[in-house]
Write a structure and sequence with these properties.
The complex is a heterodimer of chains A (112) and B (111). Chain A has 112 residues and is mainly β. Chain A has no helices and eleven strands. The N and C termini of chain B lie far apart (41 Å). Classes of the chains: A mainly beta (112), B mainly beta (111).
Chain lengths: 112, 111
């Protein structure tokens, strides 16, 4: 089991560029989520999903889109990158609402 | 939406002492309360969790208590060791996979 994998590990973007952060899990988990982590602010929920075809907005969804076409994959799209989106992004998955949530290694994003 | 507050933001203890971190939540619909440990450059890892129908749970040196009426829960680490030094996060989750985190506590255990 690879667990939760994220690509890329690092990315530098210019303001206005778009990109997709990839997330995949091989544990057949229905629940997946995206978080961003900024210094001193903990993790903030961007979007989450409870199964293929079902997504919902979290605490800070503006500027991000998600889709869930398969159980395994949950990509996060930045539509037009802004410096305020400079952060570390974590993807996570779990089998159910009261089950252990596993995090990926994170993607460090710098927007210039 | 749910709001999770965590205190203190930093905590320094001597090796062998106990450490306590406290969290409060606002949404009574939250029913799952995990605690995570995050080391530098890594993703958070679950260390213990508690469900809303349980008041206390213990795993070796780590324990968590939950007071649903007061909407607060706490992490207790006994006999602290230098390897316990890390950032700890509490979280509260509802049935729909909406999980919110506290701002974190940086724990330093001095040898």
């Amino acid at each position: 089991n690879a667990g939760v994998t994220q690509t890329p590990k690092f990315q530098v973007l210019k303001t206005g560029q778009s990109m997709t952060l990839q997330c995949a899990q091989d544990m057949n988990h229905e629940y997946m989520s995206w978080y961003r982590q900024d210094p001193g602010m903990g993790l903030r929920l961007i979007h989450y999903s409870v199964g293929a075809g079902i997504t919902d907005q979290g605490e800070v969804p503006n500027g991000y889109n998600v889709s869930r076409s398969t159980t395994e994959d949950f990509p996060l799209r930045l539509l037009s990158a802004a410096p305020s989106q400079t952060s570390v992004y974590f993807c996570a998955s779990r089998a159910g609402v009261q089950e252990t949530q596993y995090f990926g290694p994170g993607t460090r994003l710098l927007v210039l | 939406g749910e709001n999770v507050e965590q205190h203190p933001s930093t905590l320094s203890v001597q090796e062998g002492d106990s450490a306590v971190i406290k969290c409060t939540y606002s949404d009574s619909a939250s029913n799952y309360f995990p605690w995570y440990k995050q080391e530098l450059g890594k993703g958070p890892q679950l260390i213990i969790d508690i469900r809303s129908n349980v008041g206390e749970k213990k795993d070796q040196r780590i324990a968590v208590t939950l007071n649903k009426t007061a909407k607060h829960f706490s992490l207790h680490i006994t006999e602290t060791q230098p390897e316990d030094s890390a950032v700890y996060f509490c979280a509260a989750s509802k049935r729909n996979n909406d999980m919110r985190f506290g701002a974190g506590t940086r724990l330093t255990v001095k040898p």
